[in-house]
Fold this sequence. Notes:
- The strands form six sheets. The protein has an eight-stranded mixed sheet with strand order 3-9-10-8-7-4-6-5.
- The two termini are 62 Å apart.
- Helices cover 37% and strands 12% of the residues.
- The chain is globular, with a radius of gyration of 33 Å.
- It has 32 helices and 26 strands.
- 54% of the residues are buried.
- The protein is an alpha/beta fold.
- Bound molecules: thiamine diphosphate (TPP).
- Thiamine diphosphate binds at residues 302, 365-367, 400-403, 432, 434, 436-438, 499.
Amino acid sequence: MAHSGPNSANHSQSAPLSAAKALGGPSDPASIGQSINGWQSDFVEAQYARYQADPNSVGPEWLNFFRGFELGLTLETGAADGGSTHVAATSAVKPAVATATTTAAPTTFNRAPAVVTTTVAAPGAGDELQRRVDTLIQRYRTFGHLAAQLDPLGTTRPFPEVLTLEAAGLDDSALERSFDPGTLPLDNPATLGEIVSCLEATYCGSMGVEYAHIGCLDRQAWLAKRLEAARSKPEFSADTKRRLLAKLLEADSFEAFLANRYVGKKRFGLEGGETLIPILDQLLEAGPALGVQEFMLGMAHRGRLNVLANIVGKNLQQIFTEFDEAWTAAFAGGGGDVKYHMGYSNEHTTSSGQKLRVVLAANPSHLEFVNSVVLGRCRGKQRLIDDTERKMVVPVIIHGDSAFPGQGIVAECFNMMHLDGYTVGGTIHVVVNNQVGFTTNPGDTFAGKYCTDLAKAYDCPVLHVNGDDAEACAWASRIAMEWRQAFGHDIVLEMWCYRKNGHNETDEPMFTQPVLYGRVKKARPAFRTYRARLVAEGVVTDAEVESMLAARTAAMDRAQTAAKQQPIDPVIDPFRKAWTGLTGQYSHEPVTTKVPQDTLETLAKRLGNVPAHTNLHKTIVRTLESRAGAIASGTIDWATGELLAYATLLVEGHPIRLSGQDVERGTFSHRHAVVNCQDTNEGYCQLNNLVESGKQARFCVHNSPLTENAVLGFEYGYSLGDPRMLVIWEGQFGDFANGAQVIIDQFIASGEAKWKRSTGLMMLLPHGYEGQGPEHSSARLERFLQLCAHDNMQVVYPTTSAQVFHLIRRQVKQGFRKPLIVMTPKSMLRLEAAKSRVEGLTDGHFRTVLPDPGIAREAGDAVTKVLFCSGKIYHELAEQREKSGQTTTAVIRLEQLFPFPDAAVTKAIGAYPNAKKFVWVQEEPRNMGAYRFAQAQLKELCSIDVGYIGRPDSASPAVGSAKQHAIEQDKILTEAIGAAKAGDGPAGGPANKDGSKDATKEKSAQK
Length: 1007
Ligand SMILES: Cc1ncc(C[n+]2csc(CCOP(=O)(O)OP(=O)(O)O)c2C)c(N)n1
């Protein structure tokens, strides 16, 4: 037998060390025991030398480790044991891809049998045979899933060559010989025949498990133990079996009822995948004993109504009300959504009487985008109930086999699994693999063996299970639940099933999948299969099942009749529980947000605190000193205004979460909410050290991973989970937000209209034309404005630090929750004119419209032209006017663009009775920015016709050349105000009411 041992060309002295590190490295010392924890290369090499001389001279852990390592080497070289590493499995659903695939070499840390071998054959020959048996055992643990019987449609995959006796250097003659079975739950010695049948039963039945990729031996062993002890098929009690049958019956009869009573109506039925219901039910059954108080579910349309009815417990009368379309629009403010997108929540009682909450998040059609929303919502809920171990609120996400590998947000969410600011303690993923996506075959959907392959990159076990075997599915479900609670790590359960009908009930699948559907037509529903099995086992009688069926159908019948007589609002009132006392009703009524000066003074000093024994960068020290002295100086810059808003809210008991890329420092280096020690790099957050600990709420600030999509979804979800926390997402530059456009369109802008779900999420989007090119100028204000209707969100573009102070505080203090979209500054962060006097914070409130501070009240009659604008350009217009000596043009700022402040606008122009000309001025191109929106609103609500000054229509937001930008900007200002007088220096113009002054431009500090 060819042997690729340590002496082969593939072996190098440093290999064991790198393999040992692959076990988890220094951060995962538990993986192989104390002696390896140090990961000293000399030590590992010395152990290996001893092992080479005499395998029994090293301890059992090292023995196992090196044996696994060498096995990996042999498989990598493809010459192991005279066998082949070619796995000739042919997937039933991916013939083109899987036929004669060469398996990737297993990782070098696959666990070898943990018990030291005692030879039962003659010395020498016996050792060698035992080694081959060990190899075989390891191969079943690694590749057994390839031989598992997963397809309920009966397609089989050829038995993989790698699992044959011959490939391991054995043959039938060894079947009666005795060997050490290692950690297999068999007597020692056991015959090879017993070993093989144990392995076949465990790894090649209705469940195939992938876990050899997991980089932690303890976790591999945990799974092996559970799977092997039960041979992947535990003996369920008669009660459990009856429950599984009852859940299948509910799932089956629900679809049958709908198919019968609502012929031709789209419902995206679960037929073919009904075992999803017992799978989810088993999670609910097992959860409470493992500490779960709430399951937070996310899923797409397929089978959603069934889950709502039979897992979440949505009232059948409500569901039938939706089918009958018997509700009025008032049931769901703004028009609602189709029934298979709606969310629900309910209390659930397990068979043993334990209570828990089950929530299904509302979901748009966009597959998988709900995932991060579910995670964020879980995290918010975990914080609310102080679930620090993250075991009480558990996310369960149900995926489709096409969507899971296809949608990038799935990978983004896996990546967040163990990040400090985003972990939820593990997610249970259930992939409903119905072997088709709309009309697309698996071979066109994913590359690789399974649609779930992505999960392996994140060390998740993958349990592939045949949906026709309810008990195997139930067992997989329990393992998933236990794993998640034991390790706080994601796990994937892939249920192989089929889709009985077309993509929806009106679709014809025979157009595109005639062969598959030939088999589907002959398939027996899982309920009937399991029913027959339990009747044969004597667990139930046919008569009992018939009466269960009759009772269920009668209940649905009653609910349908009742729904016709008395339609029930299908949407539950969202302002309950954590949302009690809040509303979704916007109001322009000013909110009290001012703060007394002595409070501001104390907090500013705390914000400027240089922590003892922390060596800070000298620029940071200067920044902090200036913060500490801000109130005394009387002038508040943007960063201090923002931080004082946070600080005042925190000491008033309002927690805040700020997340996004580089938010701790701030992209433009203005915030420094966390300062780092120059010696240790340790971060210190003044906002969490404002007063004695326990007397302030927490400021949770997290630099996010580099995704807009998943993180914005997460923060949106968080804001649903905890409405009293101010949840803020900041874009690096505003235009990066379009990487999360689905979250903005499908959830933030329309979630309230579709699902009655309010959110107080705040988005900070750096915006402004400063010559930085097309990609760093625009937060696409126009897109947000286009989404505005029915007071669905607040869109603002504040121009002073006092305004941002009040704005942030208003978002928490107002009695309603609406998303807040803020165009935020870059260069304006350091603009003198954008600074406010302290009185701007100790007095006043956020003002939706700012009148012109440069035109005295008594000079209003002289004004003949009024410019309307929003944001940064105001300061440039004011500066230009100062330089030009203009006195007949007033500039009115719309600090809030939506909900449109028409009354405030009307009041502001009242100061200029002789104004004849009204113009909207902006720096964005005409087809962008606020112009078209503001023009329509001014016309409709204020009866003002405005002209336009700004950049002409453009396909790209801005030019690439800074010089060209400056020429364009100057043209706008000259057109709006007139030319500046030659030789004018920087302006030091009149102060706003909040104390800010006219412009002196400063350069952006953006790095
Ligand atoms: C992001 C997104 N793209 C496209 C679609 C249209 N669509 C709806 S279902 C579907 C197929 C999904 O297949 P799969 O994930 O296997 O789930 P199944 O429908 O088979 O349950 C597609 C492409 C969608 N809903 N969302």
